[in-house]
Amino acid sequence: MNYSVNQVIMWHLVICVMVLIQDASSKFYLIETDKTLVKNSETGTVAPLFGDYSAADEDAPRQCGPSMGGLGSRNYKSAEWLSGVLPCTYAVMKVDGNKFVITREEPGTPVKINGFNVTKKDYQRALDGEIVELMNVDGNTTSLVVTDGNVMIDGKSLNVGDTISFVI
Fold first, then answer.
1. What total of structural domains would you count in the chain?
2. Which residues pair with 116 in a beta bridge?
3. Span 150-159, average pLDDT
């Protein structure tokens, strides 16, 4: 049998599409069947916990890597941005050379900025004009202050500067 070049190309495309569909459908099946639901302590909502599906031990610590975790374009003049930080986030933000490491480990845990827990309640209090004392796991403290829309942590601006960059 003689096949034209177009027929051969068409068969190659059909085979490639079948391989891609098979590969995608197996991944979809894995994600759909391997969810653990976790209740968010801040909002009370239940959401799936996404993690390392190859881990046999559910109690094993999460392996988080660099990730923007929903930090792309945030309105730091509202406490709502904290809700958008995804679990397993590790991002470094630099504002005029000042480094802010922003993390969230698990759903329902507070966002940490430079190791200090920042809850929506604390952030809102700072937006309302209070000087909020933040504490890290070692017992060290720093202040969160908002003045004229400028969010300051430990005297350094989180949202106002000539150069703002994210490093992941």
1. 2
2. 113
3. 92
pTM of the entire structure?
A: 0.59
Whether 135 and 93 share a structural domain: yes
114-147, pLDDT tens digit by residue? Answer: 999 999 999 999 999 999 999 999 999 999 999 9
Q: What is the DSSP letter of 96?
A: T
Contact (Cβ atoms closer than 8 angstroms) between residue 142 and residue 128: no
Q: What are the tokens at 128?
A: 């309302």
Q: Tell whether 97 and 27 lie within a shared domain.
A: no
Residues with Cβ within 8 Å of 7's Cβ and at least 6 positions away in sequence, in order, are none
Domain that holds residue 13: 5-34
Cα–Cα distances in Å, from 38 out to 43, 60, 108, 127? 12, 16, 8, 29
